[in-house]
Amino acid sequence: MFYRPQDGHGLPHNPFNAIVTPRPIGWISTRGSNGQDNPAPYSFFNAVAYFPPQVMFASTSAKPDRDGTKDSVGNIRDTGVFCVNVVEYAMRDVMNESSGPWEREVDEFTKAGIDRAECETIACSRVAAAPASLECKLTQIVQLPGEANFVVFGEVTGVHMRDDCLKDGVFDVTTYQPLSRMGYRDYARITEVFSLKRPGE
User: Fold this and answer.
1) Which of 28, 115, 136, 192 might form a disulfide with 154, Cβ 3.0–4.6 angstroms?
2) Is residue 66 pLDDT above 80, yes or no?
3) For a pLDDT cut of 70, what percent of the chain falls above it?
4) Nearest to 66, CA basis, from 147, 155, 135, 153
């Protein structure tokens, strides 16, 4: 099968998200200029550089009260900071609850029953029990083609790792089984890993 996205795929559901999988989930926590906290998951997320460490996430929809985007991007525009929280399998339900189309004044930490902690290098809350959290300073927001497509880039200024996830000095993802986004309404979790040496090593 071949299709041009501009012509449509002719399938019951869009296969694009099922093709580009698995995708890590960035559970982005922000704080508005009014002090309101907001955690929200984004599956268009990844690390993009080592030195200095940098990450990105993309927001692709909008709310009527947020000037063409969503609460996360709106808050970051106002404050210049955000925190990326890693999602473990055990937190799948509270993560999902925080993804709802809640009103701007709703605090998703409270609504979903998520314990929060204050970040160290930025004025923002993080998910206290997350396996890892990356405190970030905004570097740029890029608008992509499409009405509400914004990519947010940030430099990591602080890193939290849960102690039980460190095994012999290695951050071991099998201890918490990171959740990843598949297509449609599907998710997956990482339960085992393997290593490959690069040519010449």
Assistant:
1) 136
2) no
3) 100
4) 147
pTM: 0.95
14-189, CATH topology level: Pnp Oxidase; Chain A (2.30.110)
Task: Map tokens 């602080």 to a residue.
Answer: 158
Separation CA 139–CA 155 (nearest Å):
7
Measured in whole angstroms, the distance separating CA 17 from the mean position of its chain's CA atoms is 16
DSSP state of 178: B
Instruction: Copy the structure tokens of residue 46.
Output: 């990844």
φ and ψ at residue 179, rounded to 5 degrees: -85, 140
DSSP 120: S
Q: 119: closest CA among 79, 165, 71, 160? A: 160
Which tokens go with 141?
A: 């927001």
Show the CA angle centred on residue 59, arms to residues 8 and 104, nearest 5°.
120
Per-residue pLDDT reduced to its tens digit, 126-143: 999 999 999 999 999 999
Residues ≥6 apart with Cβ < 8 Å to 17: 23, 43, 181, 182, 183, 184
Asked if residues 103 and 116 have their Cβ atoms less than 8 Å apart, the reply is: no
* Contact by Cβ (8 Å): 160, 83: no
Angstrom distance (rounded) from CA 176 to CA 198: 27
Q: Which of the four pLDDT bands, split at 50, 70 and 90, describes residue 97? A: very high
